[in-house]
Here is the input.
Amino acid sequence: QVPLVESGGGLVQPGGSLRLSCVASGFFFGIYGMGWYRQAPGKQRELVAKITSSGSTTNYADSVKGRFTISRDNAKNTIYLQMNSLKPEDTAVYYCNKDVPWVSWGQGTQVTVSS
Here is the structure.
């Protein structure tokens, strides 16, 4: 059973929006903080946004602050990433994972921002 399955990526024009989803399984989702990460070609994976177990606190990388919103639905073992005002530099494969120690990474979902 794959513990993390990401979806919702695609090709979008600059200024557009996407909503990513990540469904988790195999661990007690509701007691862990979760995060969205991204990896662009030739770059290291970076943390984009994180959310506490209850969803009461969120944090964002400076590069996405004010444009991205992370949320979660503990009843559905799912986290979301609403991405607005997308820029070409947001192009990457997006992954989710729990607070360290991480579980196995999923396949991610490709986000491409291009005109």
